[in-house]
Each structure stands twice: as structure tokens, then as C-alpha cells.
Amino acid sequence: QVQLVESGGGLVQAGDSLRLSCAASGRIFGNNTMGWYRQVPGKQRELVSTITTSGSTNYADSVKGRFTISRDNAKNTIYLQMNSLKPEDSAVYYCALFGPRNYWGQGTQVTVSS
């Protein structure tokens, strides 16, 4: 079993920055992809960014140039640095780990006021 614990969400103003963290614990296989998804009420959960164990990254077009994903494999932790936040970035952000099985965190709320 794997547990994912997110932190770092909050209420900020447009143009501000936030850094999300996600720490994974439990039976974690060496090669995996971790990432961030987000969801607003009434809409499907959408990809924000992913990163592989080797550091390959992928971003949604809406966050390219503003968000940066990184990971510390020794700590089984990923980060999402979010800059130039916009009100449309407001959502619950979920951490995910994709491997032999997929796991999701509980989510952390990010609210960006205009």
C-alpha cells in the first residue's frame, strides 16, 4: 500500500506563487511516474503535470511556463512550484503515483482570488 500526503495549498491573490508538496510512503517501486492533477466542482479531473523517476516532465498547455514540477527520489517527494497564478488555477490539486498500481492523495485546495 502507498500513501500520498499533499501540502502547500492555500488562498492567494492573482500573480502570487505557491509550492505544493506530495510525500509518498509505503511500498513504492523504483520506476514510477508521479504527478499533479486538479479538479473543480462539476468538471473532470485534469492533468497538470507529471514527472518520471528519471526526471522527464509533462505539462498541460495551460500551465506551461508558469508551473514547474520536480522530485526528490530519495525522499519519494514531488513538488509543484506554481508562479503567476490565475483565478482559473483555483481547484483541488491531487497528487498521483502511477506504477504497478495507481494511487491518489486526498487533495489540497488552491484558491486564487482576482
Provide a descriptive summary of the structure in words.
The chain has strands at 2-7, 10-13, 18-26, 33-39, 46-52, 57-59, 67-72, 77-82, 91-98, 102-104, 108-113. With 114 residues, the protein is an all-beta fold. The strands form 2 sheets. Strands 2, 4, 5, 6, 9, 10 and 11 form a 7-stranded mixed sheet that branches. It is globular. It starts with a strand and ends with a strand. The model has no long low-confidence stretch (mean pLDDT 95).
Give a brief description.
The chain is built from no helices and eleven strands.
SSE map:
Blueprint: E1 2-7, E2 10-13, E3 18-26, E4 33-39, E5 46-52, E6 57-59, E7 67-72, E8 77-82, E9 91-98, E10 102-104, E11 108-113
Keyphrases for this structure?
single chain, 114 residues, mainly beta, seven-stranded mixed β-sheet, four-stranded antiparallel β-sheet, globular
Class based on secondary structure composition and strand pairing: mainly beta
What is the typical, i.e. mean, pLDDT?
95
The helix/strand order is EEEEEEEEEEE
Number of helices: 0
The general outline is globular
Task: Give the helix level as a range of percent.
Answer: under 10%
Measure the end-to-end span. 40 Å
Q: Which percent band covers the strand fraction?
A: over 45%
Largest sheet: 7 strands, mixed
**Structure summary, number of beta strands:** 11
Low-pLDDT parts are: none
Radius of gyration: 13 Å
